[in-house]
């Protein structure tokens, strides 16, 4: 099994010219196939840069940059991640910058997380700073952010007032 999929090039022939708009584009959609897989037995030390969609099940010690990255529940990354989309089930020790981040229940992210669109499942562990700028706060909700304990207390108080 190859670690990285080799992109096939189609050589144009007479009557078979390919325009720039018809060339294959990198995959970015969650439904598109995964182009590269790092098996759970593998350990990579160094920087990784990729295009398209990649899934890591193993260990990476170094920075990662690319487009659509899936970290499985066995994946461990020690380094910074800069991608368009991160779907995390594994462990990250480092900073994450991504347009879209989904932290699933098994994920652990330790570091600074910057994302325009952040989704966190119950059970996920996030330690460090979180910067998410998807929406601007409304005038009604311009208070400082609350901890989960404060948010739960406020919700309980609001519910008891309704009774």
Automatic annotation (TrEMBL):
Sequence ranges of Polar residues compositional bias: 135-151
Residue ranges, annotated region (Disordered): 124-163
Domain of life: Bacteria
Pfam families xref list: Bactofilin
InterPro entries hit by this protein: BacA/B (IPR007607)
Family under the similarity heading: Belongs to the bactofilin family.
UniProt name for this protein: Polymer-forming cytoskeletal protein
Organism: Candidatus Electrothrix aestuarii
Lineage of the organism: Bacteria, Pseudomonadati, Thermodesulfobacteriota, Desulfobulbia, Desulfobulbales
